[in-house]
Amino acid sequence: MKLNNLQILRGISALLVCCFHFREYINFEDFPLGDILFRKGSIGVSIFFVISGFIMAFTTLKKDFSINTSKEIKLFYKRRIIRIVPLYFLLSAGWMVIGGTLMYYFHGEGLKRFIHSVLFLPQKDTFPVLYLGWSLNYEMFFYLIFGLSLFFKKNRYIFISLFFIATYIAGLLFPTENAYLKMVSSHLNLYFVVGILFALLLDKISISKMWALVLCTGGILLFSAFFFDFIAISDSVLVLFVVSLFVLSFLLLDYTLHFKGNRLLIFLGDISYSLYLSHPFVELFFRRFKVEGYLNIPYFVLKLIVVIGVAAFFYYFVEKKITEYLKLKLKA
């Protein structure tokens, strides 16, 4: 099954994060347009987490891990590393060089930050070298636990769901200042669990077109009301519900309503990982130029166009090329 609408949601999520980081350009003294539109754009990361959980379950649902279990787990880790690591490491190195801080990472706190970044380990009050890598710390931790869950074969989804729910509860009962334990027990890991549950649910249950329309409409309207502050929601569990229903809406467009989706939006989904990681470089470039007043609105649009162009370049000439080469080389 082609999940075109889920791919579209990837693109939307990446653009939301991008607009969140660019929003200051369209915050005017008498009219904070950037905050009105994109103050909650960082929620795109949470959407990514639900999608990741879904995709991992969706792609492994029919696999029998009782045969050659260790080999299958090794293959799983290879594919995840090939998917995530090369572009991230490349752009992290680029960030170190372009930022003029390369030597900083060869000693002291800089070296410590570098080591934590390449090992996907969080640090207290410190972002990775390429700051967006904080979310990849969560992704890689999720993949680590998901790979281990494959040892449980048919019970793998029960194991991973119980693991993240138990660690979340443990975090509530025993608060910690340790950066790694805070990540392990974070409510953000529950987004992965919801994605897994959606994959299991949609594999077993057929939802009628009428109910799919109701859920899609309700999910998109509720998320929009939350995103633009028409309703105030601060509780992390309620935000999880809103985001989850929003993702489910796009899944139902694929599963039940069979909506084909717009090609341009699907393309944005294809390049979403490159877009997510490369947009800070575009921001760095545009900082050289000053634009006054409401001219910042077309300037903002121009930056988004450039971001998409740069992301497309990285996707076709870096991300895809490296991925294809490593898959062949590592037999993954």
UniProtKB/TrEMBL annotation:
Q: What is this protein called?
A: Acyltransferase
- One Pfam family in the UniProt entry: Acyl_transf_3
Q: Which organism is it from?
A: Chryseobacterium herbae
Q: Which residues cross the membrane?
A: 7-23, 43-61, 81-106, 126-145, 157-174, 186-203, 210-231, 237-257, 264-282, 297-318
Q: Which UniProt keywords apply?
A: Acyltransferase, Membrane, Transferase, Transmembrane, Transmembrane helix
Q: Which GO terms describe its molecular function?
A: acyltransferase activity
Coiled coil, from the record: none
Q: Which PANTHER family match?
A: ACETYLTRANSFERASE, ACYL_TRANSF_3 DOMAIN-CONTAINING PROTEIN
Q: Which domain of life is it from?
A: Bacteria
Domain Acyltransferase as annotated: residue spans: 5-315
